[in-house]
Amino acid sequence: MVKAIGVIPARWGATRFEGKVLANLLGKPVIQHVWENAKKAKTLDDLVVACDDERILKVVENFGGKAIYTSPDQPSGTDRLAEVVNPLDVKIAVNIQGDEPLVKPIMIDNLVIALQDEKAAQMATMIKKIEDEAELTNSNVVKVVVDKNGYALYFSRYAIPYNRTGETDEKKRPTYYKHIGLYAFTKDFLFTFRNLPKSGLENAEKLEQLRVLEYGYKIKIVETKFDTVGVDRPEDLKRAEEALLRERELANE
Description:
Layout lengths: L1 E9 L13 E2 L2 E2 H10 L6 E6 L2 H9 L4 E3 L7 H9 L4 E6 L9 H13 L5 E7 L13 E4 L5 E5 L20 E10 H9 L4 H6 L3 H6 L5 E4 L12 H17 L1
Helix pairs in contact: 3-5
């Protein structure tokens, strides 16, 4: 049995940036950065790119990665993940975003370990403390509140919790966390989740993880100190490039 597999869903027809996973980023396609970082995760027994286009498959194979062609009709990365793991004897499946070139192997490892250690948990995801004030009002940055046992209470595009007193002192006001779109599922729960009808909260916020909470299941939360830069639009390539160059500079100091 494979204990843990990492799957990188990679879709060609992204609405805001078609073919973004093959966009050039410091001399490599975005998807290669994701692959090379994820490949260093110690807890993964296997890693595969789940793509819907021959162009992606060929590029991945050319840089030495492993790719599987999945149905172009899959509505989400989670569905593409399920298609890959369905025939496999595997315990944990990690959904690694194909447009997150700054993902760290330790982030993947921490999620896998969380599911292995927390027997009550069937799904895990990641958060980071918000340090940039602009992210509080950015609806593309999903905010998270967490209970005392480290499980998600709610995800929202609004800044939650609401700062009722208007306190501006960082030591006194609420601490805000943003969601990092990295998920780990037990295989059994992955298919339970897929079979749940879309929920009202999910439709309102356009966040599929809310389906899990609305149906009464729990999501284990793992905090990270690392930030990521998702490549959703062409202008995000510049942000990702700057972040990668900063990392290289720090590594050389």
